[in-house]
Amino acid sequence: MTLRQALSEGRFVVTAESCPPKGTAVAGALEEAERLRGLVQAFNVTDQQSSVMRLGSLALCHLLHERGLEPVYQVTCRDRNRIALQSDLLSAAALGVENVLCLTGDHVSMGDHPQAKPVFDLDSVSLLEAARQLSSGHDLAGKELDGTPSFFLGAVVSPGADPVEPQLLKMEKKARAGAEFFQTQAVFDAGAFGRFMEAARPLGKPVLAGIILLKSAGMARFMNRNIPGVHVPDRLIGIMEAAKDRQSASVEVAAGLIRELKPLCQGIHLMAMGWEHLVPRVLEASGLVNGEAG
Amino acid sequence: MIVAERKPLDQILAMLEPYRRVLLVGCGTCTAVCLAGGEREVALLAAALRLARQARGQPLETAEVTVQRQCDREFVSPLAAPVAEADAVCSTACGCGVQLLAEVFPDRRVFPALDTRFMGVTVEPGWWAERCRGCGECILDRTGGICPVARCSKGLMNGPCGGYRDGKCEVDPQVDCAWLLIYERLKALGRLDAMGTYNPPKDWSVAFVGKPRRVVREDAKPPVVEGKV
Q1: Alpha carbon A150 to chain centroid distance?
Q2: Are B22 and B89 in contact (CB under 8 A)?
Q3: What is the DSSP letter of A138?
Q4: How far apart are CA A236 and CA A247, in angstroms?
């Protein structure tokens, strides 16, 4: 069953983040994914996450796909113009990669090559339009394709942004441009997320809530200070601070959040941030392992 | 206006090192307004250069002239005499002025004293900010009079990314999120529906990347006199 089928059947879906290495050593990323085989529906492979130069998303997507693991190809607009983006989308389709998550991408100044020329020829909305147009057999210039790709298109939204209305307006635009599902920035406040979902529900698109595994109180405070749209409540910071075993506390916090979020959304997207080995415990503690996601 | 900043003195000294008599040419328009290259700044630069060269035991003679606009031939051509008397020319105009001087006086080296930054406005005295990229296809009618090409760090055309916080851009906390400004303005004007309009990818063929652009206006060209070739 594919991500598209699982979401269309209304199953509660779990996706996990998979980060390509800086270099050619792909074994680690593949092993991590292997450990989650059967536990998660699909792996979002990041595209030069945080503008840090790494092995390409499409290469790791292909390697996962080859092993029977389902990838979500994350594509950003930061590094490629419309010619390269459309070409890479066709390449993905030719390699059997169907799921594409269309993002704007972080600014180059956030990464390890801050002097690079930022591209942003397309944005997340026009990238979705481009992918949809390719699926209809034509490129952005209106030229006919020899062989038409098929994509299951996704997009992102930041439910904790303040104000949130511009996010909702853009989410609607993304849905009109062809987004079939949404994955969100990290959620730590189920109440606020519930209010967001009330506003987003009329779009009728499945939303996978982002879950970041907290590693420490310090990390939570760092995110509160530095990551727009992310707010870790004091209660969760307190749990991490008081913890003797931080990994167990991290599992407990994430699983608690997932149980609260489950009735509000259609799935979760796990960002383990290096603690991938905890994902099975998180899924078990949140009651998802033997559920639909397994 | 075009906003520029003077290069560090050491860089200017290094460019002018082989020369003994230098003509400093100021510009009385944009770079005068942004306090980088008008008459006053030329006088200060000339004094600083002379002092530094004196200290190195390699005295420098300077002549100074400030024209109304260095981007117009009619103001630059009359400089033939002082240019001829100098070993080299140093301009405190934007890059346009430097290039026109070099074009009009091909037998003299022309050096830039400024780094040209951007087209912008005076926010308050001593603070200038970018407002226009000259992208060749104005969309300010659709964005509440606030330009996302110049003022969004990513130049996004279809609304904000997730990187705003307290109204500011995560790329630079000194910079307002352009799309939040657009959102608030459209909301105040009762035109929030415009936020939902899809803006197709920008046509970069008319913008600042790729081939150099020109504007030709037949009606503004000098009249052709009958019978003359």
Answers
A1: 20
A2: yes
A3: B
A4: 14
Determine the residue of chain A that is closest to B158 in CA distance.
A125
First to last CA, chain B: 39
The CATH superfamily holding the domain B2-117 is Response regulator (3.40.50.2300)
What are the pLDDT digits (tens) for A63-120?
A: 999 999 999 999 999 999 999 999 999 999 999 999 999 999 999 999 999 999 999 9
User: Which amino acid belongs to residue A81?
Assistant: N
Q: How many residues does chain A have?
A: 294
* HSE-CB for B195 with a 13 A CA cutoff: 25
CB-based burial label for A213 (10 Å; 0-12, 13-18, 19+): buried
Residue A215 contacts by C-beta under 8 Å, 6 or more apart in sequence? A246, A250, A273, A274, A275
Q: Indicate the DSSP class of residue A2.
A: -
The DSSP secondary structure of B3-24, one letter per residue, reads EEEEPPHHHHHHHHTT-SEEEE
Q: What is the ipTM of this complex?
A: 0.94
Q: How confident is the model at residue B52 (pLDDT cuts 50, 70, 90)?
A: very high
Q: In whole angstroms, give the CA distance from residue A174 to residue A124.
A: 8
Query: Given strand B168-169, what is the order of strands in its sheet?
Result: B164-165, B168-169, B172-176
User: Is pLDDT above 80 for B224?
Assistant: no
β A207-212/B2-6 pair status? unpaired
Q: Which residues pair with A208 in a beta bridge?
A: A183, A267
Q: What is the pTM of this model?
A: 0.93
Residue B194: count of CB within 10 angstroms of its CB: 16
**What's the CA gap between A73 and A89, in Å, rounded?**
9
Q: Which of B183, B192, B201 sits opposite A122 (nearest CB)?
A: B201
Q: At what angle do helices A165-176 and B178-188 cross, to 10 degrees?
A: 100
Instruction: Decide if B119 contacts B57 (C-beta within 8 A).
Output: no
Which residue, A215, A158, A217, is CA-closest to A186?
A: A158
Q: Which segments of chain B belong to CATH 3.40.50.2300?
A: 2-117
H or E stretch covering A242: helix A234-242
Q: Which domains does chain A have, with CATH numbers?
A: 3-284 (3.20.20.220)
Question: How many Cβ atoms from other residues are within 10 Å of residue A238's Cβ?
Answer: 12
Chain A residues near any Cβ of chain B (below 8 Å): 77-78, 82, 104-107, 109-110, 118, 120-126, 129-130, 140, 156-158, 161-163, 165-167, 169-170, 172-173, 176-177, 185, 228-229
Contact A23, A267 (CB under 8 A): no
Give chain A's end-to-end CA distance (angstroms, integer).
Answer: 11
Q: Residue written as tokens 């100074």? A: B64
